[in-house]
Amino acid sequence: MEPVVSQNQPAMEQAPASPEVKPIVVKGITLGYGREPILKDVSLEVEPGEIVVIAGGSGCGKSTLLKGLTGLLAPIQGQVWLEGLEVSSADEKVLSQVRRKIGVAFQGGALFGSMTLAENVDLPLADTARLSKAARQVLVRLKLAVVDLDGYEDYLPSEISGGMQKRAGLARAMALDPTILFFDEPSAGLDPITSAELDQTILKLNNALGTTMVVVTHELDSIYTIAHRVIMLDKSEKGIIAVGSPEELRDKSSDPRVTNFFHRKPRN
Q1: Tens digit of pLDDT for each residue in 70-94?
Q2: Within the chain, where are the H helices?
Q3: CB neighbours of 81 closer than 8 A, spacing ≥ 6?
Q4: Helices 162-173 and 192-209 meet at what angle, rounded to 10?
Q5: From 3.40.50.300, 3.30.750.24, 1.10.357.10, 3.40.120.10, which CATH number describes the 15-101+178-268 domain?
Q6: Is the pLDDT of residue 263 over 80?
Q7: Where are the chain's structural domains?
Q8: pTM across the whole model
Q9: Integer angstrom CA distances of residue 195 from 86, 109, 224
Q10: φ and ψ at residue 213, rounded to 5 degrees
Q11: Can you name the residues that pair with 82 across neighbouring β-strands?
């Protein structure tokens, strides 16, 4: 992804470029909402085409980290690069431009209930893409077909199942062909079969498009199915306590907090 620049200003005046052109580079960020930070001095990198799961117990800062990565929460300190562009201290104009290059599938789908699925998916296209309405309609049908919702363009969210709503939200997140997709608890509220189907949709998109993905979840079945690598957070540490494949963390970690999580053992 090329850095987005103003016609009147050079790129370096807007946001300095990272020397490592990777989808995501995070260096020493501290995040929080008040005096006491939730996460301290967190650093990580995500490789192109990788599916990284952010995992951990309740209250460990998973969603907070996701907000920091997507520019929804400015870090107290530290830096975040997306595709080589430093966004953690960027102004709202630059953030708006960068967000057009990423997609976020929110928990619950976050669809507008008064709009059809096609209208929901068309929202980012109508707002940013310089396309005719007819061209946008073709793209909308394609995006819905990718998530197996072809034929449901005129349905309202209330007329489809929870799993289908999640997939429609994913279609909307993909509308602008992002290079990075972020998922916030994609399986929350779904039955096991529907959750497994959504996992397969995520894998299909990753394999077909090579899209880099960051997924926040605590669902072990999903983690084992989709994760290339897991970044595990801990509430007491206020940061990362383990990084590796799900199998490595389950079988080789010496940290009981990690093994207990992956073996579903209660805390002592």
Answers
A1: 988 989 999 999 988 888 877 777 7
A2: 11-14, 62-69, 92-99, 117-128, 133-146, 162-173, 192-209, 220-226, 246-252, 256-262
A3: 17, 18, 20, 22, 24, 25, 26, 87
A4: 20
A5: 3.40.50.300
A6: yes
A7: 15-101+178-268, 105-177
A8: 0.86
A9: 34, 14, 13
A10: -135, 140
A11: 24, 85
CB 203 within 8 A of CB 226: yes
β partners of residue 234:
239
Give me 54's structure tokens: 């952010």
Over range 134-146, report the average pLDDT: 94
Task: Give the C-alpha separation, 98 to 102, whole Å.
Answer: 7
Beta bridge mates, 26: 44, 80
pLDDT class for 9, splitting at 50, 70, 90? very low
Place of tokens 């976020």: 104
Token duo for residue 7: 């016609």
Q: Is 102 exposed, middle or buried (0-12, 13-18, 19+ CB in 10 A)?
A: buried
Average pLDDT for residues 42-47, to the nearest whole number? Answer: 97
94, 159, 92: which is closest to 120 by C-alpha? 159
Helix residue ranges, H only, 186-254: 192-209, 220-226, 246-252
Task: Check: CB of residue 216 under 8 Å from CB of residue 183.
Answer: yes
Burial of residue 224 (number of CB atoms within 10 Å: 0-12, 13-18, 19+): middle
